[in-house]
């Protein structure tokens, strides 16, 4: 089905310059020469494909290494950096409990429980923090301003 072929490359003189002549000869009929040129181009295409794959792989490895060594973004929530105000406001109460100012009652209770467990005096927390957390809960739930004992 396929014809055997030979490719001859030889220099020739044309208009005072040396050029290269490429000649494909086939042992079969007229279509054999065209097959012979395609067979000669196949290694070139394969080589270019391998080079492109290698360069793409190198780029991906470099991108992955840059991704892994980038500075880690903090994934925790930022807390209010300042101290307490003299008179607690709804904004400060919401910041203490970590809820919105107009949060639902169940969200306020849930947040109060979570913060109080972390800062309870029996578990090593301070009495001052516990009183501020309780004051924040009362203020957000609308039970009036009892004021902190500190």
Structure description:
Helices cover 50% and strands 13% of the residues. With 150 residues, the chain is an alpha+beta fold. The protein folds into 2 domains: 5-55, no CATH class; 76-150, Helix Hairpins (Orthogonal Bundle). It has a two-stranded antiparallel sheet with strand order 1-2.
In brief, what are we looking at here?
This protein is α+β, with helices and mostly antiparallel strands and 150 residues long. Helices cover 50% and strands 13% of the residues.
Relevant terms:
150 residues; alpha+beta; Helix Hairpins; 2 domains; two-stranded antiparallel sheet; 2 strands; rod-shaped
Count of separate DSSP helical elements:
4
| Uncertain stretches | 28-33
Instruction: Indicate the mean pLDDT.
Output: 77
Give the name of the CATH superfamily of the largest domain.
Answer: DnaJ domain
CATH class membership of the largest domain:
Mainly Alpha
Beta-strand residue percentage: 5-15%
Largest sheet: 2 strands, antiparallel
Q: Give the strand tally.
A: 2
At CATH level 3, the topology of the largest domain is Helix Hairpins
What level of helicity do the residues show? 40-55%
Please compute the radius of gyration using only Cα atoms: 40 Å
CATH architecture of the largest domain: Orthogonal Bundle
How many separate structural domains? Answer: 2
Order of adjacent strands in the largest pleated sheet: 1-2
């Amino acid at each position: 089905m396929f014809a055997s072929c030979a490719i001859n490359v030889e220099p020739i003189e044309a208009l005072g310059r040396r050029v290269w002549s490429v000649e494909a000869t086939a042992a079969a009929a007229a279509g054999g020469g065209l097959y012979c040129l395609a067979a000669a181009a196949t290694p070139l295409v394969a080589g270019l494909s391998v080079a492109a794959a290698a360069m793409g792989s190198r780029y991906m490895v470099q991108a992955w290494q840059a991704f892994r060594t980038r500075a880690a973004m903090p994934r925790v929530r930022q807390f209010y950096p300042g101290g307490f105000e003299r008179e607690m406001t709804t904004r400060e109460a919401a910041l203490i409990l970590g809820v919105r100012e107009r949060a639902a009652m169940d969200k306020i209770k849930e947040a109060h429980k979570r913060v109080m467990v972390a800062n309870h005096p029996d578990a090593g927390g301070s009495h001052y923090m516990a009183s501020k957390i309780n004051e924040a809960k009362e203020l957000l739930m609308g039970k009036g301003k009892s004021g902190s004992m500190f």
